[in-house]
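Predict structure. Input: Smr domain-containing protein, 185 residues.
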Amino acid sequence: MNEVCVVVTRTSTLVYPLRLKDFNVPLSLRTYNTVLNSCPTVTSMLKDLNSCPLSVSEVLTFLNEDEVVLVRALTQSSVLHEAMEWSSLEGKLDLHGMHLSSAYLIMMQWMDEIKVRFSGEKCVVPAEIVVVSGSGKHSSVRGESPVKALVKKMMVRTGSPMRIDRKNVGCFIAKGKTVKEWFCQ
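Output follows.
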């Protein structure tokens, strides 16, 4: 079974990812987008990028009990690892296809994940770290990517050394060593 067809309603959305987990069906990016878009607290947080929480643990403090269960189920899925590549040449997070709320949660998970990777003794430090946000070609207003705006705001607010790539405006880049030093300070 490669694909699962789901009807999401206001009452069944929060139970949906847990049922899939019970049947060992992995969450797809499409499911992640759909389910997270139905989480009103998370979507309302993203109306003000200057004050939205910057960590999963902080987000959880604002959510109701059902939303906490939902977000925990999503963060335990394989979606983050499917969006990541990690080698000595490049550590990459590709946010293509993610809706704003999904990119938000994945970005926070990714920051937690690379912090853990960088703190390991036998850590592979990629030569370059790249976050692909897209430049807005598929956005409702062409050329204005809400995901890129979110990533940029998160980078600025956290003091990240990552900057928009001059060669590809849909990417944020930095040297791996610089990112490791920033995370481990």
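The domain at 80-183 is CATH 3.30.1370.110 (Ribosomal Protein S8; Chain: A, domain 1).
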